[in-house]
């Protein structure tokens, strides 16, 4: 292949592909992004429905101050659009022994919280004395937390937190891959309490947006700003069906658009899709494809429930509620969406976003709509004191919502990289973390590699 149509083709217009394409464009490369759906953003998708603002995918972004996504906010013209979540969002509830209890945020609240027994509190506070255990086998999150913090902390705090982030079970996930910061803390500081304190100081000193945020018209504003940045370099309804690499030099990529097949050539190719979609496209690179297919994904169903304020007994004065496995509830979590950001529900109404399914409730994620509605409404009646019928009810399902960083994930990813043809790179939420900002970072990493190869 001699001349190429462009330097890099990016497959997938989710946040990881958008980030890769933007970074390459900014560096002066010619780039074409192909997205098979009719919109850009992938999992990021905000819709308005009957006066409610619904996030079909992610609900909010968490910025640590040092995330590359934070650096791109001004570049994308979004600084004045940033919407920080209400201070109420600091309040989180856990459903424990049939009661909604707040997660303690101050030392005083910690001492008096009924969420942990006296023994559990003493065990937690003695964490700094637990010796490091750095050699040997790869630990699950559950094993690590049990060892360092005790069973109660695992059951009451970590188990529901893992459900909230990964829709998973702490005993299924690799600590090193799913929560590398905790692994680093033990390595560097010998204790999570000491490491946590040091991290807190660093966060205070860092710049950029911090905390939980969104935009007035929802997270799709982020995808729209990326789309504007890319202009005609990003195309929708463009399904990449195959590629070939001739003599290891460049790529010839087949694209289905409006039922016609087109071809484009490029020096580099970035696959910014889910692991399974990348595996489909990578079938010529068999080993990498096989390893990609091994990554499990949690299915999730989401119910959006809109009711009049007075139909809910609970004040909804927080981010939402999570459910420890021991509570035996059918829900993964509930976000009090209209308490976090303004204009999410019509005047006098509230919006609840209810998550069901995950790795431990897969059947529920695929329940019939009417069964799901009955289950969700029944649970909300018992948990939040909801009464009457909803003014608004909508269901969204994601068959492959969240990739699971299970034991062996790190090795799997290393194997995949080692078996890719030269010039082909991957981006996506199964590589550097599952959040929007980590998926964004994975796109920037892929762009860096493509630039280096050019
Ligand atoms: C229900 C849910 C709630 C979440 N909540 C949060 C949250 O509150 N905060 C947070 O930070 N993160 C959250 N996440 C995680 C986060 O949204 C995702 O990890 C991230 O958006 C994934 O981005 P991505 O680019 O890796 O993948 P995707 O967004 O899945 O994008 C991949 C894109 O590739 C396209 N594609 C695939 N194959 C092809 C092909 N052959 N040709 C062309 N295009 C193709 C797909 O159509 C898709 O648009 C949530 C995720 C889900 C599902």
Tell me what the structure shows.
- The protein is of the alpha/beta class.
- The protein is 36% helix and 24% strand.
- The chain has helices at residues 15-26, 68-75, 107-112, 118-125, 141-149, 151-166, 175-178, 180-189, 192-205, 220-230, 275-281, 286-293, 337-340, 362-365, 369-384, 409-418, 436-453, and strands at residues 6-11, 31-34, 46-49, 52-55, 61-64, 83-84, 92-96, 99-102, 210-214, 234-235, 238-245, 251-257, 260-271, 297-308, 320-322, 331-335, 349-357, 392-403, 424-426.
- The longest helix is centred in the last third of the chain and has 18 residues, at 436-453.
- The model has no long low-confidence stretch (mean pLDDT 94).
- It binds flavin-adenine dinucleotide.
- Flavin-adenine dinucleotide binds next to helix 1, strand 11, helix 11, strand 14 and strand 18.
CATH homologous superfamily designation of the largest domain: FAD/NAD(P)-binding domain
Question: Hey, roughly how much beta strand do the residues contain?
Answer: 15-25%
State the oligomer.
Answer: single chain
Basic shape: globular
Global mean pLDDT: 94
Number of domains: 3
- What small ligands are held by the chains? flavin-adenine dinucleotide
Q: Return residue spans where pLDDT drops below 50 for at least 5 consecutive residues.
A: none
What is the CATH architecture term of the largest domain?
3-Layer(bba) Sandwich
Backbone structural class? alpha/beta
Helical run tally:
17
Extended strand count: 19
Helix proportion: 25-40%
> What's the CATH first level of the largest domain?
Alpha Beta
């Amino acid at each position: 292949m001699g001349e190429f149509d462009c330097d890099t083709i990016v497959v997938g217009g989710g946040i990881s592909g958008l980030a890769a394409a933007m970074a390459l464009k900014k560096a002066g490369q010619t780039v074409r992004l192909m997205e098979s759906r009719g919109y850009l953003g992938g999992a990021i998708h905000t819709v308005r429905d009957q006066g409610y603002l619904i996030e079909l995918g992610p609900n909010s972004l968490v910025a640590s101050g040092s995330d590359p996504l934070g650096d791109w906010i001004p570049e994308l013209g979004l600084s004045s659009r940033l919407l920080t979540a209400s201070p109420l969002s600091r309040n989180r509830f856990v459903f424990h022994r049939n009661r909604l209890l707040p997660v303690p945020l101050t030392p005083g609240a910690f001492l008096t919280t009924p969420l942990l027994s006296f023994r559990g509190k003493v065990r937690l506070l003695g964490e700094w004395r637990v010796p490091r255990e750095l050699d040997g086998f790869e630990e699950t999150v559950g094993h690590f937390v049990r060892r360092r913090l005790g069973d109660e902390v695992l059951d009451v705090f970590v188990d529901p937190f893992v459900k909230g982030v990964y829709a998973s079970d702490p005993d299924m996930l690799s600590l090193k891959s799913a929560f590398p910061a905790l692994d680093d803390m033990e390595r560097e500081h010998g204790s999570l309490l000491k490491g946590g304190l040091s991290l807190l100081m660093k966060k205070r000193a860092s710049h950029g947006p911090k905390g939980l945020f969104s935009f007035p018209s929802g997270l799709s504003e982020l995808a729209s700003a990326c789309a504007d940045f890319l202009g005609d370099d990003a195309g929708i309804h463009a399904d990449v069906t195959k590629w070939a690499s001739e003599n290891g030099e460049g790529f010839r990529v087949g694209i289905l658009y409006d039922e016609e097949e087109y071809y484009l050539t490029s020096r580099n190719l970035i696959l910014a899709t889910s692991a399974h979609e990348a595996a489909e496209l990578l079938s010529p690179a068999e080993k990498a494809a096989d390893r990609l297919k091994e990554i499990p994904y949690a299915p999730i169903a989401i119910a959006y429930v809109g009711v009049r304020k007075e139909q809910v007994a609970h004040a909804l004065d927080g981010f939402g509620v999570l459910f420890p496995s021991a509570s035996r509830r059918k829900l993964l979590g509930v976000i009090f969406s209209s308490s976090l950001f303004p204009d999410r529900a019509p005047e006098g109404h509230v919006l609840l976003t209810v998550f069901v399914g995950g790795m431990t409730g897969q059947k529920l994620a695929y329940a019939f709509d009417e069964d799901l509605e009955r289950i969700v409404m029944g649970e909300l009646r018992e948990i939040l004191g909801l009464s009457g019928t909803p003014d608004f009810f909508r269901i969204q399902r994601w068959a492959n919502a969240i990739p699971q960083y299970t034991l062996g994930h790190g090795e799997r990813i290393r194997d995949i990289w080692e078996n890719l043809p030269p010039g082909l790179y991957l981006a996506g939420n199964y590589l550097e973390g599952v959040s929007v900002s980590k998926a964004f970072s994975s796109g920037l990493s892929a762009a860096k590699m493509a630039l280096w190869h050019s």
